[in-house]
Structure formats: C-alpha cells, structure tokens
Amino acid sequence: MQASKKYIYLEKLLFSSRENDILRFYSNFKSPKELVHWMEKRPRQKFKIYEVNGDKRYTVIIPTRNYLGSHARRCLKIYKGLHIIFLESHGAFFSYSRTINYGFKYAVKKYDPNWIIVSNDDMLKVDNVLKLKNQLDKLNRQKVDVVYVSPGKQQSVKSYLVSPRITYRLYQILFNKCSKIAQRILDKFGARLFIISCNNDSIKSQMLKLLRPLLFRTYREFTSLGSCWIINSDFVRKQRYKVLDDNFIIDTEEDEFVLRHMDNIRASHINYKIDNYFGASLGSGCARSLKGLTGIIYLNYKFSK
Asked: Taking a C-beta distance cutoff of 8 angstroms, is the pair 148, 270 a contact?
C-alpha cells in the first residue's frame, strides 16, 4: 500500500465511530515506536480561519468543525466583545495541538494580545464575558503564564498521573467493559501510566476519586486545563509558538504540557465560570475513549526516553 494511501486508510480507521475499526487501527502497529513514528509523520490538516472583530487584548482561539454550526454560533454570544479566531477543520488529519499552536502564532504575530483564551466550541455561557475581562485585568502579566478558570465538568479539573494496581483489573471486569478494552491496548504498547480526572459532577469520577488509593499508584497530582483556559502571549513567544506538542492528535496534549512545565510554570486561578456539552464536538462513549489512547501511548513513550 502506498504511503499516502496508508495514511488515509489509518486515518479513517482511527476516526471511525465503530470500535472494531479503531481496534484495527491499533493492530497496524507492533510497537509504541511505530505508532509514534506514524504520529510524527502524519500529514498536516487543512483549515480555514474566520475572525470576528473585538477587543484584541483578549483574543479567543476556537477550533471548530463548522464555523456556521450551532456550537460556533453559541461561542459568538459567549465571547461577544472579544476578538475571536475560529480555526475550522473538518477533513482528514485533524490535530488539536497543531491547530492550537497555529492559532497562537497567528494571534500573537498579528494582534499581540495580552491574553489568549483557548476554548472548545461546545461551550455554555455561565458568567458574563465582562467578568472574564475584569478578572484578567487584576492579574500581573509579568508574573503569570497560564490562567485557570473556575472548576467545572471539563475545566480546571483535579487530575492524577497513575498506574493501575491489580485491583483496577477487577474493577474493569466488574464495572467498565470499555476500560478493559482500553487496558488491553495500553498493555500491548507497554503504556503503564495514564491520567484520571475527577470532577464534582460525575458519579464515576467521584467513585474513582474515592477508590483511587485502592485502584492506582499515584505519581503526580495536577490540575488539567480542559475545555477553556488562558495563556499569556509573552509565554507563547518564549515557547516559539510551540506550546503544545504537535504530535498529539485529540487527547492528552494539554495534560502533557502541564506535566512538562508544572515545576516552573507560573499559574493563577480566576473566578470565571463556564460550562460545556461533554463530547459534543468529537463525540463521547467507548469509541471516543479508544481514539484518545494514542495520546496516552505517546505520553508514556516520551516519559520513557
């Protein structure tokens, strides 16, 4: 099979809604090195930029599948008054990290904002955008690199870098069939570390939080950035616009960023609440979870080097 055709074939398997197709995707690789090599050489996606004029001191970048869709339209109301940059991509070879990094470079070079708000498109308004601006204005930009919004379903969530104990295998058998399938894939690629996130809105998350000492060995505790977070444009420049690792596809890139910088990054928290529809853009369920294992496997590969 020609290289270009094989990339398209594997891409269709990975982004299929069928679990069996995604399992076939992973069966094409014999080692983590092979999978990571494919991720590194994966072609760049094409996307279009749409802008909505506003206060450029606070520039919002939003990846979206459809600029004219209901999710993007809702974001126009949520962030009304701020400058908004939509990065539309709905074809093959989508990469969240590459999209966000491109948005960083575009926003900083063209507008030099004080703050860049990174947002999913499937958001729900809670607080007014004026509160967001007022909270950011209270911060000293010389002392803050990254800003967390108020904790929510997928924003600023307490997370843990863990490895499973034998008791977790029993938990998977009894309670979580998809987790059992995912564990087989992780075992194949020698990925012993993964991330669990525990918010206050999910019974499953609360149960994992309660049982964590019994089910896992914990190596790091940290706060995930999630579906809405903010970064200082000066920090983006220092990173030469490569804030997120370009090789990630749809999961773990922001957690890896936090883990990589957690000992030296200057983070602050603001009182700004926002919500989102879980999985509205990229889906949910077992198939969505299995797609995201590429990120966990890559994270383990990086940590092993």
From this structure: yes
Given 3-state DSSP classes, what are the helix, strand and coil percentages for the chain, each rounded to the nearest 5? Answer: 45, 20, 35
Whether 96 and 252 have beta carbons less than 8 Å apart is answered as: no
Contact call for residues 228 and 155 (beta carbons, < 8 A): yes
Inter-residue contact 49 to 85 (CB < 8 Å): yes
How is residue 42 written in tokens? Answer: 């994966």
| Residue 127 near residue 273, CB atoms below 8 Å | yes
The C-alpha angle 272, 274, 275, rounded to 5 degrees, equals 155
Confidence check: pLDDT of 3 > 80: no
Q: What is the per-residue burial (b if ≥16 Cβ within 10 Å, else e) of 188-223?
A: bbebebbbbbbbeeeeebeebbeebeebbeeeeebb
Report the chain's mean pLDDT, rounded to a whole number.
93
Give the Cα separation of 154 and 29 in Å (integer): 31
The two tokens of residue 234 are: 């000066």
Confidence at residue 170, expressed as pLDDT on a 0 to 100 scale: 85
30: left (phi over 0), alpha (psi -120 to 50) or beta: alpha
b (16+ CB within 10 A) / e for 139-165: beeeebbbbbbbbbbbbbbbbbbbebe
This prediction has a pTM of 0.93
